[in-house]
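User: Could you write out the 3D structure of this protein bound to adenosine-5'-diphosphate? I've included everything you need below.
Assistant: Certainly. Input first, then the structure.
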Amino acid sequence: MGEFALIEEIRRRCAVARDDVTLGIGDDAALLQPRPGSELAVSTDTLVDGVHFPAGTAAFDIGWKSLAVNLSDLAAMGAEPAWALLALSLPAADADWLSGFCDGFAALARQHGVALVGGDTTRGPLTISVTVHGFVPPGAALRRDGARAGDRILVSGVPGEAAAGLTCLLGSALLHAAGPVDRDYLLERLHRPAPRVALGLALRGIANAAIDVSDGLRQDLGHIAARSGLAAVLVADALPQSDVLLRAGDADQRLRWQLAGGDDYELCIAVPPARVADAQAAAADCGVVLTDIGAFEDGEGVRVVDAAGGDVALPRSGWEHFVA
Ligand code: ADP
Ligand code: MG
């Protein structure tokens, strides 16, 4: 397979039709029609073999995840995804690998109506760089700098499950009671994150600030706090749990997964107390649970406390991947 056969294969397998694409893959540049009156939200994220996914990860999962992490960024802005670019560096022109990769990428692209409109294909160490574009009404984007003192901190889903999945993958004996069904579930959470696009759209006009949780909840919450000039107080006991997570690890390990583990791609948001019920109802309409895990206050940094308000001693990180 030469470069042009590779590109043709990508074009064929990842086709998603959109009216706002005048000219897609095949020319020197794509021609696109931005939505009149909208702001364009643009974001890019790169996945590197052995850094962002373990060597040996299935091609389908790499394709899925390379788009998912980007759509998650649009979700965190409250933007509606439209177009993607794909820059691929491949060690070899492996038709089977490419086919799996395209299937994973296309499966998620179709779910969200995202058109792949161009990219670049080169030979080199396996690296996947995706750029996404989406629309948001002017001034309506969910930014990191909009939190106010008194806002509640809400998080979607169950952060920590992807990190538990990575622990499964690394075959750690520390994963004490996860049976095969639990393992499959946790691995799915690691390899096929569902970007919270509908939730991000539903939270426009409700949330004051948002971030997607990609690098660990504590660190990502810290970004909202820093950009908003506030302190975040996170109640460890309020963190949402799942039966699978409860079976997978003891309290210390779960806290480490939930606060310092990455790859959740959940949304963490700041919501005025009077709008928490609205946020949770909007999330329920999207089939997502939003849990209240704390509040912003004057000050700086992230403090993790127990239900009584005492500081929680954070367990030391056990894996290099999770060093916060
Ligand atoms: P050029 O040399 O002019 O940059 P290329 O040969 O790199 O053109 O690309 C040809 C066409 O294929 C362009 O439209 C480009 O956007 C598209 N393309 C190349 N690689 C990819 C890819 N990995 N995914 C999607 N489109 C691609
Ligand atoms: Mg090129």
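The two ends are 42 Å apart (CA to CA).
User: Perfect, thank you.
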